[in-house]
Amino acid sequence: MIENILLTVVTAATPFLIAAIGELIVERSGVLNLGVEGMMIMGAVFAFMAAQVTGNPYVGIIAGIIAGGAFSLIFGFLTITMVSNQVATGLALTILGLGFAGMVGESFVGLPGIKLEAISIPFLSDIPVIGRLLFGQDVIVYISFALVVGTLWFLFKTHAGLTLRSVGDNPSAAHALGISVSKVRYLAVLFGGSCAGLAGAYLSLVYVPQWTEGMTAGRGWIALALVVFASWRPERIILGAYLFGAVTIAQFHAQAVGISVPSQLLSALPYIATIVVLILISRNRRLTLINTPASLGKQFVPDR
Questions:
Q1: What's the 3-state SS for 90-102?
Q2: Do 29 and 184 contact (CB within 8 A), yes or no?
Q3: I need a surface site. Which of 15, 110, 153, 172 has the fewest CB within 10 A?
Q4: Is this prediction's pTM over 0.90?
């Protein structure tokens, strides 16, 4: 029983973790991308379609990453090159992504999915409780942990990470030092979009191996909240992602044990938790500002 609950928590938390790590890099560059939800749904539909056509879920993963990355480049062009408002552009792309995904995926609704199977490591996977939990996950779960470790190392142990943070804190000073602010931000946005696409692919290939319109169900917005919850620190995103993952699956286990709570309230739990967390964080202004990129959401036009 406990093992099954923990496994479902991992499954529910993984898309939050991947999407939030991608958005953290984007925001560390000073760009606020509210189009995560749209990029996730694009990744979900194209991953499902590619897996259906080829019969290979790994092709689906690649397609999901490419779809999310390509969609993020539209956001990058509009906000970085054309200097459009980041908030309005992100919202518009979310609406566009949800509508476009619903249109291109219409003929795939109801088809059985090509599920990405878990990796089974001989002997280790058979260890009671922790065997399947640690050594019997699918490849995307392991990628999610690698992304956290890699992001932590990149941000605080590399010159490129220092450059990214400098662009997010003071793009004018970075530009004066000869750093291409636009290039850094484009790469960050591309990484974030690719992560969102991978998170979407996980939804349609693992979490619920099928395609249904709107299947991201607000997870992109929760990923955005997780970045604030973690105060822009990669290691804290793991805690937040698994906390929200546990809240997400709580509704199913509550119904299974016969707790008489309205299903609508249980479905709303992840979003209620998001609001509560943001309210608690906002009460501590020092915690909110301590790692916030100083130029987050601000447009930058280099002097000519």
A1: HHHHHHHHHHHHH
A2: yes
A3: 110
A4: yes
